[in-house]
């Protein structure tokens, strides 16, 4: 069995890699356990040196890694560069703050001395997606490893080059052998890794269906897990919003990474009489985007990551149209090769349509018209997902009041939803549980130990 690295812009296979034999997995995990014991014995300052080195490796090799991302999952090269820089910043953030986040916490009790200590769990199994192939891993690994854990990575099967490049980066940064390992394994093999006695916990970023499977296996073996799953984020435009600013931001919120992001804006809920103006300006900006080679700086429309994903998205669009949605723009394949899909606008989208009920993981914007803010809040919350949301308004206090009523892990007022190392990141409902980033994220994979002394 093998994994192929296929360029989604051309459809051509660039490289093929063998899948690891199942029999070889247990001894690898044993070696990682041994390495983790030594890694956890280092203090925070010693671990921080390695992550500062890793930040330098990312910056020094930015072009090389960005090209790997673009060639393997299709991201615009200029966006791939930003992703690598974000990885460097994430490494530096935890190198600086991990010791403070996990310092012993003194608590008064009936003891002479009592405190809470935060100690590593051991080996953490990371199952990561293809859409941000470097950043998704770093935002999980940097806090977990700074806490003293070791990492085993199973990356998405369509980004094996990214998986191996990440291991190379850790090696170049001087990390002790086997503190970070990237294994090219299948989903079935991932289940055996979760079950292995040497694995303490698992974190997954992926689809809701994948989350259910991982949670089931982890639960059977009483393993802690963190799940960051899909989303159908509402982009709520109130009637007092700056329409020009909101539409400009909406283009980025929907089409960056070709809409293949769990926190991309997907349902545009527009209040009152401004809907016609918003849709018209949004359409005008979409028409300025040109598709082409994702390495070309002038390209605005890159390919989707895989042809099958493009086809699934198109089926959702077609079904929504058949149920009454109005096609304003796009809705078709573009180009003679690769996995390109035209940026698409669906208007008059309502609950019951795939464009409203399901996650549209690609360049399709669903316009939902409502009469008032109460209806906007109700429809924003009428979803199985609860990852992120944004509210656009000329009154920040009004926006904050609306934000507090939205059922989501993150709500942004007059800003695009994003992950930030300084803030916890994660969702509710079918968008998963647990948190990444900030001090909340680093405490997910530690033993919160009470120590009582008389």
Automatic annotation (TrEMBL):
Q: Does the keyword Plastid apply?
A: no
Q: Which Gene3D superfamilies does this chain map to?
A: Aldehyde Dehydrogenase, Chain A, domain 1, Aldehyde Dehydrogenase, Chain A, domain 2
Q: Which GO terms describe its molecular function?
A: aldehyde dehydrogenase [NAD(P)+] activity; succinate-semialdehyde dehydrogenase (NAD+) activity
Q: Which PROSITE patterns match?
A: ALDEHYDE_DEHYDR_CYS
| Record key words, sorted | NADP, Oxidoreductase
Pfam families for this protein: Aldedh
**Domain spans labelled Aldehyde dehydrogenase:** 3-451
Q: PANTHER family recorded for this chain?
A: SUCCINATE SEMIALDEHYDE DEHYDROGENASE [NAD(P)+] SAD (PTHR43217:SF1)
Q: Which family does it belong to?
A: Belongs to the aldehyde dehydrogenase family.
Name recorded for this polypeptide: Succinate-semialdehyde dehydrogenase / glutarate-semialdehyde dehydrogenase
Species for this entry: Nitrosomonas aestuarii
Its ancestry begins with: Bacteria, Pseudomonadati, Pseudomonadota, Betaproteobacteria, Nitrosomonadales
């Amino acid at each position: 069995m093998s994994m192929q690295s296929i360029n989604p812009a051309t459809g051509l296979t660039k490289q093929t890699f063998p899948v690891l034999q199942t029999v070889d997995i247990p001894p690898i995990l044993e070696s990682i356990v041994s390495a983790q014991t030594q890694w956890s014995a280092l203090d925070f300052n010693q671990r921080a040196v390695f992550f500062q080195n890793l930040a330098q490796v990312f910056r020094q090799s930015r072009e090389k890694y960005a090209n790997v991302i673009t060639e393997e999952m299709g991201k615009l090269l200029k966006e791939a560069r930003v992703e690598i820089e974000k990885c460097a910043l994430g490494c530096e953030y935890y190198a600086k703050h991990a010791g403070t986040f996990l310092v012993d916490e003194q608590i008064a009790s009936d003891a002479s001395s009592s405190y809470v200590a935060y100690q590593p769990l051991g080996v953490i199994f990371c199952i990561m997606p293809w859409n941000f192939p470097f950043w998704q891993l770093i935002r999980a690994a940097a806090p977990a490893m700074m806490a003293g854990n070791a990492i085993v990575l199973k990356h998405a099967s369509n980004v094996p080059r990214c998986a191996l490049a990440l291991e190379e980066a850790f090696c170049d940064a001087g990390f002790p052998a086997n503190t970070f390992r990237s294994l090219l394994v299948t989903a079935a093999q991932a289940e055996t890794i979760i079950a292995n006695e040497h694995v303490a916990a698992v974190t997954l970023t992926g689809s809701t269906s994948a989350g259910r499977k991982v949670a089931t296996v982890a639960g059977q073996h009483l393993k802690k897990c963190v799940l960051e799953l899909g989303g159908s984020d509402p982009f709520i435009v109130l009637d007092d919003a700056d329409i020009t600013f909101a539409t400009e931001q909406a283009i980025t919120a929907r089409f960056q990474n070709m809409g293949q992001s769990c926190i991309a804006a997907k349902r545009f809920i527009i209040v009152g009489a401004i809907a016609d103006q918003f849709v018209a300006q949004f359409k005008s900006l979409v028409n300025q985007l040109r598709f082409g080679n994702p390495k070309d700086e002038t390209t605005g429309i890159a390919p989707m990551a895989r042809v099958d994903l493009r086809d699934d998205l198109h089926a959702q669009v077609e079904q929504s149209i058949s149920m009454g949605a109005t096609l304003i723009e796009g809705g078709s394949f573009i180009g003679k090769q690769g996995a390109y899909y035209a940026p698409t606008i669906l208007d008059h989208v309502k609950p019951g349509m795939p464009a409203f009920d399901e996650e549209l993981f690609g360049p399709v914007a669903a316009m939902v018209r409502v009469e008032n803010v109460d209806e906007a809040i109700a429809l924003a919350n009428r979803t199985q997902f609860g990852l992120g949301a944004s509210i656009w308004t000329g009154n920040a206090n009004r926006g904050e009041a609306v934000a507090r009523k939205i059922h989501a892990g993150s709500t942004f007022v007059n800003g695009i939803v994003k992950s930030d190392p300084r803030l916890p990141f994660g969702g509710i409902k079918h968008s998963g549980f647990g948190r990444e980033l900030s001090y909340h994220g680093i405490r997910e994979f530690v033993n919160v130990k009470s120590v009582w002394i008389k």
